[in-house]
Amino acid sequence: MKKTIAIAATLSALGSPVAAEGIIISENSSRKSMLASKEQFTGTVFVEPMFDANEQNGHSTGLVTFTPGARTAWHSHPRGQLLIITEGAGWVQEDGAEKRNVKAGDVVWFAPGIRHWHGATDTTLMRHIALSYMENGTNVAWSDQVTDEQFLD
Ligand code: MN
What we know:
By secondary structure, the protein is mostly beta strands.
């Protein structure tokens, strides 16, 4: 017991290494879902920004819901992107490779700079949390839309 108290006192004396707020809570009720832009997505897609990027975490965090048939345009991420599939089933594809199936519970890493898309399947919804890593104030470079032919290939 004494040992525990001594350690706690030592940690307290060291203080926090950062001046920023120690704990930040993004309350569910404070966030708004929005329809994703038709310039960067095909079909009906809802985007909910969950947590902004900052100097400590280095990435934005967003919840994205793709209704059946919906997908991103082709794009890449300068520092990569991690997707945590939270619901449903969908497809992901790297340019030049086969389309791949993903489902709830899968976690997907896209390496920096690779051209890819992600979305629902033609018949199922897919929802993911996206951690998009920042470089010089941006985390994505958009390209052309994924055609129906590419999507269904
Ligand atoms: Mn991506």
